Every structure is written in C-alpha cells, then in structure tokens.
Amino acid sequence: MNSIVARLGWLLLAAFGAFCLGTLALHRGESVNAFWLVAATISFFFVAYRFYGRFIADNALRLDAARATPAVLRNDGLDYVPTDRRVVFGHHFAAIAGAGPLVGPVLAAQMGYLPGTLWILVGVIFAGAVQDFVILFLSVRRDGRSLGEMVRSEIGAGAGVIAMIGVLAIMFIILAVLALVVVKALAQSPWGTFTVAMTIPIALVMGIYLRFLRPGRVLEVSAIGLVLLLLSIWLGGKVAADPAWAPLFTHDGKTLAWMLIAYGFCASVMPVWLLLAPRDYLSTFLKIGTVVLLAIGIVFAMPELQMPALTRFVDGSGPVFAGSLFPFLFITIACGAVSGWHSLIASGTTPKLLANEKDARLVGYGAMLVEAFVAIMALIAACVLQPGVYFAMNAPAALIGTSVETAAQAISQWGFVITPEALAQTARDIGETTILSRAGGAPTLAVGMAQILHRLLAGDGMLAFWYHYAILFEALFILTTVDAGTRVGRFMIQELAGLAVPALGRTESWIANVIATALCVACWGWFLYQGVVDPLGGINTLWPLFGIANQMLAAIALTLASVCLVKMKREKYLWVVLAPAVWLVVCTLTAGWQKVFSNDVAISFMAHARKFSAALAQDQVLAPAKSFVEMQRIVRNDHVDAALAAFFMMLVVAMLVFGAKAALAARRSNTVTAREAPYVALAEAHP
Amino acid sequence: MINLARWKAILQKTCRDCATYTRRIIGIPDYDAYVAHLRERHPDRPIPNRAAFFAERQRARYSGGGGRCC
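^ inputs. structure came back:
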C-alpha cells in the first residue's frame, strides 16, 4: 500500500515537472516567471535521481553495499578516510563547481532560454551525471586510481598517453579562457580591479596568520578573510570615485593580461601556505555561500524572464558566438550539462573518501545535478535582463560600435528595442562607466545577480555593491583555478618532460619547478593574450575551443566507461554510457569540423585565415585589423586555433579506435576481463 | 525542568560537526579522527600536534594532481 502511494507521489511530481516545462516551452507572451523554470528543474532532478540514478546503480553498475571500498581497506586517516556521505558530497561538489556552469549558459542565452534549459536538463540527467557517477564507481573499484591510470590499464598504454596529452591541452585552454573572462570583467573597471587585487594582500595576511600566529585555525581565519573581502568591496567604491586613486586601478585588457600571467607564475612558484591555499579557502566558502544566496534570491524574488523562449539567433547568426544550435549550443554549455573535467575529480580525492559503494549515487550523480541547478540559475540571471542590455553587454564592438547610441541602434535593428539612455543608466546603476561589449559571461551574470539580490537587500547604491560582489565572487574562484591549475599543469609538464630529461621531472628541484611553471604559464598566457587582442573579443574564438576540449574529455571518459561495461559483461546496459559518448563524439567532431573546414568566415578559423591572406596578397588591410602586422597576426592565430581544433578531433578519433579494439577483444573473451581490485567483504575489512 | 547540560552537549557536538564538515570541504581532514586512528592502528608512530598535522595536509593537497574544475 505504501509503495503504491509512493509511486503515485513520484508520478505526480514527474507530471508537475512536465507541466512546468510545458508552460515554459509554450509560452509566447511578454515574459514568463522564473518559478516555472526552477520548479521544472527541481522536479525532474528528483525524479531522475530516484529512478534513473537508481537504475544505473542497481542494474548497470550493481553497486555492492557489502564490498569494502578503498577508504576502508587503506584507511590511513589522511588521504584514504571512510567519510560520511554528506561530507563527501560537500567536498565533491566544492571541487566540481567552478566558473564553467556560470559562463556557458549566459553565452547560450543569445538563442533564448529554452534551448539552453532543455540541453542542461537532458544533458545532465543522461550524460553529465552519468559520467561523474560511473567514473567515480570505476575508480572506487580500482583503489581510487586516476582517469589516466584507468585508461592505461583498461584500454592500453597508447590510449593512456592520449588521455594525458588531452588533459594537458584542455588545461591550457581552460586556464586561458577563464583568465580571459576575468580580464573582460575588470578592463576599465577600477572598482572591480581594486576589489580583486585586494584579495592578494588579504590572502597573504591569512597565510601568515595560519602559519605563525594561530596555526591550523582555518575557520577562524577564513571568517576574518571574508569580512575583509566585504570591506574591500565597500572600499572599492570609494577608490573608483576618487580622482587620485581610480587611475591606479584602471587598466586595459593587455595590461591586465600581463598582470594575470605574472600572478599565475608567482602564485604557483611561491609556497602554497602563503597565497594559494588561503585564497582557495576564501574562494570555496564564497562560492558555496553565493550559490546558496542566489538560490534564495531567485526563490524569493521570483523574477520574470525577459528573454524570449527562442530568438532569431538559433540560425547561427548570433553576435555572442557564431554557429547554429547544433552543434554549437552543446559545445557552449559544457560544464553544467556535461563536463569532462569532472572525470578527473571523480577519479581524484573523492573515491578515496567513500565509506560505501552505495554512496556513489549521491556523490557522483547527485552532486552533478546540483551543479546543473547552478547552471540553470546562471541562465535565469542572464534572462532576467532586458534582452537589449544582454546583447549590449555580450556583442563585440565590431558589431555594435563603442558608444551607447551606436549600440542601441544596432541592437534595436536586431529586434531587441533599447534606448541609449537605458544602456547608460544601467552602467550608472552598477557603478561602472560602460557596459558595452563586456563579453565573457561574468559581467552579464553579475548584472543579473545584482538585480535578483537587490530585491533581497535593496537600498541606495546597493545595486552597485551587489554587482561588484558578484564580479568578486567569480573573479576570486577563477583566479584560484588559474593558480591551482598552473600548479597542476606544472606537475604534468614535469611528469612528461621527466620521461625525456629525468632532471626536469624532479618536483622538489627549484630550477625544474621554475622552468616547468614558466612553460605552463607561457602556454596558457599565449592564448590569453591572443584572446585579449582579438578584435572579435576573444571569447568568440576561445570559448568554442574550450567547449570542444571539455566535451572531448567527457567523450574519452565515457569511452572508458563503455569499455569497462563490456569487460564486466554488462553489454545489456552498455547504452547507458555509450549513448552519451556517441552524442558527445558527434557534437565535438561536427563542431571541430566546422571550425576547421566550413566556408563560413564567422565560424571557420581556416576560412577566416583565407579571407585575410587573400587581402594581404592584394596589400589590403581589412577591419578590424589596422596594419599589415595585425593582419599577419590574425592569420597566424587562425592557423594555430585551427590546428588545435584538428588536434582535438584526432585525439577523439584515436581514442575511439583504441576503445573499440579493447571492447571487441573483451567481447571475444568468455570471462570478465575488467581489472578491478580484488573483492574484499566489508565484514572482513574490520578486524 | 530543562536539562541544560544535555542541551549544551548537543549544541557543542553540532558546532563541532559543522566545523569538521566545513574543514573537510576545503580538504583538511579531521585531526581527532586521525589521532584516534593512529592510537588504534599504529601505536608505535609519533602523534603530530594540530599545527603540524594541518601544515602537512595543506602541503599535500596542492602537490601533485587533482586540481580544480573549470
């Protein structure tokens, strides 16, 4: 009787979710309330967790509650610790949540709220959460091994090298594109630059306090740090208004790019306790706190979505990113729907903490659903803006000009009516001089968040405070990704270089450390700088490359998962991982192909290069280039970007070939060939 | 009659659990649990003090792979 009632309840919840989504999809009026989006998302996620998550756990993976996990078997109280599943959940979520799910949905909003919403919902339920869950499970069954090690042992040494190179390449692109987001947000903004710069002295004070004054009192010092951060936002407003101080913190993109490159180098060479670790603590707490705050804001404010369900830009002519809905929507929203990067976290520290295999569903599948909810909130924040403001902030200057008059005219011609006064007023409200062409997602999200949070705590000048709070929140954890990522990249370079020159592989050597760090910084710094000087805004060029790289990594992870299911003789459930793998391969290869071989100058790097080469041959200078040197640089950058896209495609194809060979070999075998750690019953693990 | 001592104990435990949870999120394991683990499994090994334990864990978190998400 109880089970019938429960089933009826779930059925009602599913029906309610479908009703909300239907309301969203069929709405063709002025605006629709964000409530429907939040309600649809939450109901679908609960139903998916309860039914699809459990289906995967019980049938495809057959989680075994009686089997001892690595945390139990190798319990050392440090790395391997059986931990309460709610704690592991928090730890895992803090590690996977980053800037990706905040930026992608904001860019994708140019097509309207519906395409992004549908892809996030379907993508996370059938691809993203599945990937995180299955990789976590595979790693738990293999002593907490990393993705690269698992690819090597299950598919082969060649495939392992491919995965390692893929991870390194994606790292450079991620660091460059995220740093670019920060540059775009801080350019010509003394208030923002001051607040973000202040995080460095605050972190130094925290580091010294933790090391010498009150060692280990990490929560106490984090609380002090957060108070200082809020004070620096307030002080930033004073600095920006002061004619003597403001110029010190007003910089253009190029200067900021060099500052970031120098910062990335210093932060990753210096002892971690001094700068990197305290900043990481601050950014983690600020990140979780702000996500919760934004959720409360959306629930209480219940804002109306101003963006239409679909805009005319689904055809691929949009100003924010070029390319039609398929495949580019699925590349643009990477994290939030499915993120290959998570497979590294799910095979990192998390599997060493799981006290029981059964917890993998909550931690792997559940945490990714929450991440997707963050992506939905970012989408809402972008769509509560007036579409005219949204496009003014995200379209490049090459399309809308550099004054509010030209921008308002151009955007109104696209069908999104906006007045120059409205654009100027929005900039004044948030305490900035201009909002035009601030591509990269962060400023758009910050304006949207400010409007939502302003309804929680309103007041004179509070809109500007909330805007800079949101900018700080994003910049802080992007910079943490940049310094921590540079450090990880340095270790990877040392590992690879150590194969050729053993002296370079010694991580304790100071010279090897500096060389590898410089190499790592140079690699992402080059892309960052090219993005900053890119006349089309840089995000336009780099974000699709990032999306392709991230989805490529997800395709690699899901290929590994498919091979492992075949080796476990669970072919019956192969579709669970093979279907999302195929979808991601189709998306990355199509997008990569168009980026290289299409004839559309707006999409293809090669077509763009051909156009500029042809002009060069006739001694012409094409706008936005201003000299022959700039023309040559554009052509060279196009060639590098095209080569990178082609390289990513080759990685995917090579991985598929290796994976298919391994799977076919496993099929021919009559026995289970997956290389799991030997079975130990939980009851016997505790002597 | 309200049992104040009992409520105080519950409150203290809740605060302690919250603090452990929060530290765990930023990658700092529970010190008391580690000491208990050492006493039970490795009585021969020296027990680090809280500060040394924290410094070692902080260093370990940022050396090697792992990393943060996009």
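Chain A has one domain: 2-188+251-668. The radius of gyration of chain A is 25 Å.
thumbs up if we can close this ticket
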